[in-house]
Amino acid sequence: MAEWLEEIVAEEKLLHPGHAACAGCGPAINVRHVLDGLAAARPESRIVLVVPASCWTIIAGIWPVNAFGVSVHLTPFASAAAEASGIKSALRLRGQGDTQVVVWAGDGSTCDIGLSGVSAAAERDEDLVYVLNDNEAYMNTGVQKSGATPEGAWTTTTPATAPRAGQKKDIARIMAAHGIPYVATLAPGSVPMLRDFRAKVARAAEVRGFRFLHVLGACPPGWRYPTDQTVEVTRLAVESRAFPLVACDDGAWRITYRPKRPVPVREYLEAQGRFGHLSPDDVEAFQSHVDERWRQLVALEGQTSCSETPPSTISV
Ligand SMILES: Cc1ncc(C[n+]2csc(CCOP(=O)(O)OP(=O)(O)O)c2C)c(N)n1
Ligand SMILES: [Mg+2]
Which atom of ligand 1 is nearest to the CA of 56? Predict the structure, then answer.
């Protein structure tokens, strides 16, 4: 086994067994790699996790039960970025400014109802790691469509007879347009993708200011696939380029994982019941949108974002 993988296997896990996530929950894998990666990168600093209303308020547990090996602060739906900013300021005043304050928030709160607060915290360049746990719908309340739901998807508010119209909100580019120091997309669908994931978490730990990690979290009940297919569905999301792995580091865009032979997006869609109603024409349209977004990313590579003054980054 490669040395870096051995280290990951041996490290202390900050999401404990016995948590309340569904079988096959993709975000349960992801949150563990985010927290363990941040802890490994800065072992001397504590972590405080800030979680708005979502599946994770349930999974974390009700006080005094805590599924995490770190302090958890639960917030209302729209205020995680604001409360995390306040927590960071309070810790700084108490001489604990090296604590890593980490938001773990769903797509409903990040892309829709809490977006103004996220944008304001980004504009202030708050010293936070903001993680978007994107399972592409409001899952905790029963699979309602969010701004991050992909085109054509079934949800309980977009039934198969009238599926999600329009495109998934491009939140990574929206956040990068704030000129924040670090934005990245992450999805652990294979060993090389996990390596990319952990490198991005390590980079986020190193940078100061507002760091935005957009993590794809496959969801068996919401996406309608068998619970043992989470890693495979995640792999297909990246290999089909439906969810490209990119980073915008200090304003410079880079595609961090290039599928050698991209799989047709049809294979990704066919693996999930939420797309089962799509016609061949729908699938073709989906593919052309994926191809167009990839072309845009290729064009972005090497360009700087709209930040006028490059944000300062320091190494720890
Ligand atoms: C102001 C407000 N509206 C609605 C709710 C109900 N609610 C709790 S969790 C949730 C879904 C959250 O969706 P998302 O942010 O995507 O997280 P997920 O549940 O998918 O993890 C909703 C609608 C709430 N708690 N507060
Ligand atoms: Mg969600």
Answer: 21
Nearest ligand to the C-alpha atom of residue 136: 2
Residues of the chain with pLDDT below 50 are 306-316
Residue 139 alpha carbon to ligand 1 centre in Å: 8
Range of the domain at 37: 3-300
Interacting residues of 125 by C-beta distance below 8 A, sequence separation 6+: 180, 181, 209, 210, 311
| In-domain check, residue 316 | no
User: What are the tens digits of pLDDT across the range 45-83?
Assistant: 999 999 999 999 999 998 889 999 999 999 999 999 999
Give pTM, 2 decimals: 0.96
Q: How many domains does the chain have?
A: 1
With tokens 């896990």, the residue in question is 13
* Per-residue model confidence as pLDDT tens digits over 301-315: 977 654 444 444 444
Considering every ligand atom, which ligand is closest to the CA of 76? 1
The answer to the question of residue 314 being in a domain is: no
CATH number, position 189: 3.40.50.970
